[in-house]
Amino acid sequence: MSGVKLRVWGEYACFTRPEMKVERVSYDVMTPSAARGILEAVYWKPSIRWVVDRIHVMKPIRFDNVRRNEVSAKVPVKGASGVNAAMKGGGEPLRLFIEDNRQQRAALVLRDVEYVIEAHFEYTSAEDRNDGKHLDMFNRRAGKGQCFQRPYLGCREFAAFFEPVEGDVPASPLADEPPRDLGWMLYDLDYRNDMAPLFFRPALEGGVVEVARALEREGVAS
Amino acid sequence: MTVINNRYEFVYLFDVENGNPNGDPDAGNTPRIDPETGFGLVTDVCLKRKIRNYVDVVKQGAEGYNIYVAEKGVLSQTREPAYKTEEVQKLKKKDEQIAAARNWMCANFFDVRTFGAVMSTKENNCGQVRGPVQLTFAKSIEPIVPAEVSITRMAVETSKEAEAQEGDNRTMGRKHIVPYGLYRAEGFVSANLAQGDKGTGFSDADLELLWQALGGMFDHDHSAARGKMSPRGLIVFKHQDALGNAPAHKLFEAVTVTRREGDGPARSFTDYAVAVDKGAIPDTVAVDVKF
């Protein structure tokens, strides 16, 4: 068995829908790729790959709206005002002026979230196959509150707190609600295939997103 | 320049007196407020902007301390250092060039080294630099009640307005203020993102500058809208290594801000008591109350 359970929570979260990225709108629940990122922030090695099985939603789903001034440009690499020109000397001084590149963007974010992520890992190569080692390292770190970097809930400004779950996962407050189809949702990015997004069709049943079951039922679409 | 090799968390307290710490563009620039609870908010990007401006003012564009995402106001004083790099011309491979460009950005720009940056163009993607320093939204300790203050200007903008007023030449405006609010922000420094080939090289000296910026940034950010803003507390938790020794939420819970005895709404910092429960913090984490 190579399964882990991690409780994560925070004040805000934004799991951005890819079709609404400019004025960000969050999915109702955490995506498997965001959950994978949180696990990787705690423990990861190139020889393993985290696979998310289940995401328990432990708080009612609530939204809030935040509008911020954001920069509309990225750092150019090429061209007279780019990094390369500045590195060679000459060219214009390398700066990005926020007044010239400003966008006010709203974000529809989740408030006061808590999830329990159930996941297991698979091996990516023939080396370093030792279930006990990886499990112990993950659980040790999660228990001590250690992390490689601070995990976050979709965006880095929404930091996540985490702790391991002892024993069974407590019942979700949404357990008595009728099942709800969440529609097509981002599953993860296919890094082997030029970062193509993969989608799946989960349902929220008894306060739990059954990731593995949704994959069995519908598979992924890209 | 030694790269940091400890994990840090910090709690930062600041207050505002008769000013608007962070306007909400969605609400006509009134102070940001959490509609459900009435608590005031200051966004992470607002605080980062002030840190950038402070470093820009203090370092005057000294080598290694340029600010990439800049406000115009300070640029005229900034002397751009001469860039001397032969490295790029030597490199033939694209990924090596990208890595060199990335490292050069980190070495020269404080904000890229600290907060990260997205460097990509259409044809070649430099990927993203993830910075070690992460800030969250600051939230007021108690609900705030913004006040709207109407003001008069003894002049008008256009002659058309003057004619309409028959020479009275006055316009009314309005300011939004928070009479008093004490805000608390929390932050994280992940040493792993500073270290190694893929790290940004964020050093101990940079960290000191960050603490310094949190202490002094409001002194260089006075304006008609801000009122009086002051840093009131910076409590830094230093772990023994890069992974850390205690859950962050346990450390944050050890810092409590409570109202002192007294009636009515808080109107100054003396109405609050800040306590750090050292007993709740494991011995493996060093607590440093900077101010």
UniProtKB/TrEMBL annotation, chain A:
Coiled coil: none annotated. Its EC number is 3.1.-.-. CRISPR (clustered regularly interspaced short palindromic repeat) is an adaptive immune system that provides protection against mobile genetic elements (viruses, transposable elements and conjugative plasmids). CRISPR clusters contain spacers, sequences complementary to antecedent mobile elements, and target invading nucleic acids. CRISPR clusters are transcribed and processed into CRISPR RNA (crRNA). Belongs to the CRISPR-associated protein Cas5 family. Subtype I-C/Dvulg subfamily. This is pre-crRNA processing endonuclease. It comes from Pseudodesulfovibrio mercurii. GO terms for biological process: defense response to virus; maintenance of CRISPR repeat elements. Keywords: Antiviral defense, Endonuclease, Hydrolase, Nuclease, RNA-binding. It holds the Pfam family Cas_Cas5d. GO terms for molecular function: endonuclease activity; hydrolase activity; RNA binding. CDD domains: Cas5_I-C (cd09752). It is an enzyme of class 3 (hydrolase). It comes from the Bacteria.
From TrEMBL, chain B:
InterPro entries: Cas7_Csh2/Csh2, CRISPR-assoc_prot_Cas7/Csd2. This is CRISPR-associated protein, Csd2 family. One of its GO terms (biological process) is maintenance of CRISPR repeat elements. It comes from the Bacteria. It comes from Pseudodesulfovibrio mercurii. It holds the Pfam family Cas_Cas7.
